[in-house]
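Lab meeting, item 3. Inverse folding demo.
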């Protein structure tokens, strides 16, 4: 029997990999959330129904429920990091989204130089904030949390451009070629390698584009283009 050969392009392969990672995260987080929900119910039962007495047991139960809630948030974040499903789009100002992302990312040692404009887009505000936060986080990592990040916005007819430039280590050719691949990372064990993968997906789901200009040792400029609403 003739053997059929299938060849996938890098884009198709990445899409398949992302889907598999997203499915895995979705199943794992669903199960984890069920368990966490039961644990939270149990701690509620001990506190409110059985009315456990004593300072120490109540302190422990309080700690238990706050730790469960923290873990629940971490599971939600894990899901957001690995999977983009439905978007909830609304009319909003890209200026506010970029400003919020910068505010969230402010840290000692990092100077932000900004030149921002007001422009209306149709976007999922939380997801789009996640995109800019991911890119600013990468810039901070590349500069080892010391230096200047410039964030500029331009209007080009029906599109708005946001350009984020850092003074970090830059990328070599191989890194630039692979940086949007799922699970690709050059960082330590704490990084997952999903930041740019998910950002690309979110941007494309908004009809936008992302490209990177970089040189090893010479920083990085990330260009994000999004359609504007008239
Ligand atoms: N501003 C930048 N300067 C230099 N290298 C970068 C920059 N942004 C991304 N990279 C390179 O691209 C890789 C992939 O980036 P991505 O954001 O997808 O993953 P990560 O930052 O390694 O992990 P995660 O974002 O999931 O925590 C990085 O590991 C790094 O090598
Ligand atoms: Mg990242």
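The presenter then showed the designed sequence:
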């Amino acid at each position: 029997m003739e053997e059929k050969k299938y060849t996938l392009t890098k884009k198709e392969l990445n899409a398949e990999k992302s889907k598999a990672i997203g499915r895995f995260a979705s199943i794992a987080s669903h199960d984890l959330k069920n368990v966490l929900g039961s644990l939270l119910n149990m701690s509620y039962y001990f506190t409110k129904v059985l009315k456990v007495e004593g300072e120490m047991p109540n302190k422990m139960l309080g700690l238990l429920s706050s730790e469960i809630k923290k873990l629940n948030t971490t599971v939600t974040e894990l899901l957001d990091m690995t999977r983009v499903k439905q978007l909830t789009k609304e009319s909003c100002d890209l200026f506010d989204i970029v400003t919020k992302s910068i505010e969230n990312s402010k840290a000692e040692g990092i100077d932000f130089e900004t030149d921002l404009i007001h422009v209306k887009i149709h976007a999922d505000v939380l997801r789009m904030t996640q995109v800019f936060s991911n890119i600013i986080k990468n810039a901070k990592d590349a500069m080892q949390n010391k230096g200047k990040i410039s964030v500029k916005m331009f209007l080009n007819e029906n599109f708005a451009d946001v350009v984020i430039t850092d003074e970090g280590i830059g990328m070599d050719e191989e890194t630039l070629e692979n940086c949007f691949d799922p699970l690709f990372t050059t960082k330590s064990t704490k990084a997952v390698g999903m930041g740019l993968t998910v950002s690309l997906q979110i941007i494309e789901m908004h009809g936008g584009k992302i490209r990177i200009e970089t040189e090893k040792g010479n920083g990085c400029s990330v260009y994000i283009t999004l359609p504007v609403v008239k």
